[in-house]
C-alpha cells in the first residue's frame, strides 16, 4: 500500500498509538526478547536488567496496547507477541539504527 493513498485518519492514529507504546528502550528490549517465543517474567528478568515492578509496568503497557498477549501456567504468566508486524517493524528499525551507528 502506498502511503499517498492512505486517506483514513484512523490508520495514522493507530500507528501513532503503536509507536507510543513502543517508544521506550525497555519495551523494545522486551519485544526483542520475545521475538523467538514466549517467556515468563522470570525469564525476561534474567535477560533484561531491570526490577520486577519496572518489568511488570512495561509488560502491562505492551499488553494494553495489544502488542503482547499473556497466559497463565500455574503461578507463572507467559508473555508473547500477538502481532508479527510489530516484530518485523522492531527488527527493521533496530537493524537500521545499528547499521547507522
From TrEMBL:
Keyword tRNA-binding: no
Assigned keywords, A-Z: DNA-binding, Transcription, Transcription regulation
Keyword Repressor tagged: no
InterPro entries for the chain: ArsR-like_HTH (IPR011991), HTH_ArsR_DNA-bd_dom (IPR001845), Metal_resp_trans_reg (IPR051011), WH-like_DNA-bd_sf (IPR036388), WH_DNA-bd_sf (IPR036390)
Domain of life assignment: Bacteria
MF annotations from Gene Ontology: DNA binding; DNA-binding transcription factor activity
Pfam families attached to this UniProt entry: HTH_5
HTH arsR-type domain boundaries: 7-101
PANTHER family xrefs: ARSENICAL RESISTANCE OPERON REPRESSOR ARSR-RELATED
Record protein name field: Winged helix-turn-helix transcriptional regulator
